[in-house]
Amino acid sequence: MIVFWVVAGVLSAAAAGLILQTAARAALRAGSSDPTSEVYRRQLREFDDLAERGLIAEGERKSAHAEAARRLLSVADAAVEPWTAEIGHRRPVLVAALVAPLAALGLYLAVGAPGLADQPFGARIATWRALDPSMLTAPQMAVVLKALIAERGPDAEAYGFLAKAEIAAGNPSGAIRALRRGIELAPRRVDLWEGLGEVLMIEAGGQVTPQAQRAFAEALKRDPRSAISRFHLAAARIEAGDRAGGLADWKALASELPRGDPRRAAVETAIAQAQGAPAAATDQMAAIRGMVEGLAARLEASPEDPEGWVRLVRSQAVLGQDSQRDAALAKARARYADRPEILKALDIAAKTAPMRRPQP
């Protein structure tokens, strides 16, 4: 590491020397005439040359010629103050150029770790893979998943888990790339199309963009019952000004969902808000908790749903239900103990930050 700082200091000094040498040469020409007029004259010649070679039309040549001539005349009429160099300013610049790398080296020796051995990226990945997934951060998890995909070959499900890791790491663009790659491998996976639409919305700050609408539409082609897609496409209609059409779609969706389905409460809350009815924060939280409880009950009855377990753990983490989250995480980890990619996705979901409580 010391060698690095020595080389960096030498390069900094060399760069400073070049800058000072160029400044000195400019100082020797202090008081010379303004070169701007020559620039515009050269432009006029270049326009004529391009026209003669047939690279621009005559009309374009005349227009560009007139603009350059106008600028040339304005420069010729303006009073020019020749640039002069202050010799007294050179010494502070030279001192600063020499002191900066020395100060950086001294600071590193004081607070850094010059004796620390290099850590190649490949070695770090191997270390992360050997650790318990719960000890990894979301960015580290994403790197490990990419390494697993490179090692085992492309897999649509693995790309789905990678997208979740990228979202948890605050990288929606990476999640979009992962989902698109997964869709290329499994274009009939409805959950991947739904996930792509939702991540596109996250990237757009919550708006149902045309790209997100296309993703939800693709999901509906494969599953006309996709509640997620129908909900967001209806919201897009309302955002576009078709309030009546969007509300009609939401009402149709709510009527098709069973009364015990927590998703119905969420849709009805959205309908009430769109119609201007007061919706207290407590009512919204109750609807959200109902959806999570319904998901937990469904998984108890039909536990073979890795995506559902990941969603449940993440939802409970968002709600701050630590005990329920830990219990669900333990059940899911025991069920999928031989599925490392699912275990990693579960650990990422468990680390999701809880939502902020509304202020009274």
Task: Kindly list the characteristics that best describe this protein.
360 residues, mainly alpha, Serine Threonine Protein Phosphatase 5, Tetratricopeptide repeat, 73% helix, disordered C terminus
Instruction: Give the low-pLDDT segments.
Output: 356-360
- The tally of strands reads 0
End-to-end separation: 54 Å
Helix/strand order, N-terminal first: HHHHHHHHHHHHHHHHH
Mean pLDDT: 79
What radius of gyration results from the CA coordinates? Answer: 32 Å
Shape: extended
| SS element count, helices | 17
Largest sheet: none
Structure summarized in a few sentences:
The chain has 360 residues and is an all-alpha fold. It has 17 helices and no strands.
Structural overview:
The protein is mostly helical. The radius of gyration is 32 Å and the shape is extended. It starts with a helix and ends in a 10-residue tail after the last helix. The protein is built from 17 helices and no strands. Helices cover 73% and strands 0% of the residues.
Topology overview:
Layout lengths: L1 H27 L7 H17 L5 H20 L12 H22 L9 H10 L7 H15 L3 H13 L3 H14 L4 H14 L6 H13 L4 H13 L3 H14 L5 H13 L6 H21 L4 H13 L3 H14 L4 H11 L10
